[in-house]
Amino acid sequence: MLAAMAAVMASCGDVASKLGGTKTDSPEVFNKAKELAKANFDPSKWKIVEVDWNEGGASDELTGKVSSIRFYVIDNDGKAWQQSFIAQTGWKATDLDDTSFATGDKYDDPKEYPALELDKIDPTKITKVIEDAKALIPKGYKYKSLDNFEINTYDSEAMTLTLNVVEEGKETVTNAGRTSTVFYELKYSVDDNGKVTLKD
To answer: Global pTM?
Structure first.
């Protein structure tokens, strides 16, 4: 497990709940990804091969609020690109950037990567994967938030995710008058059959 710390702000949870925001572990974030994909990537020009979303940093850390949804796409020439959509700006798109695409372990050439057919994925499948991951949290720790979630078509690990957890009874430390939350990152992989494995 990777340890990290986040500053605790007074009434942070209260403020987050009043402001709302799409949660990283909710079906709504996947539905938003489907909506963005349909509106922005013409399947005759782009092949989506990966989508991921992440929790916000700074004051949004450990709140489970989505900060961005990112897509990796392949154009008709086989070139890889990525583009993110930012929650705080009303899901406005960043620039479309060409990217050095990591080689998957199923295919040698990005041109061969199958399209990620988001419309054929039931959001409840995502929810189940997250709940199965939570069930594997070691004894003595409890769930705090979903840090990130990724789905792709080119690796044997069809999905990966990271949960933030805290140790029961040792959630915070205070130093020089500043209180911080001590949390740990648990990384998981999910195979094509939906089996969730805790990696570290």
So the answer is: 0.85
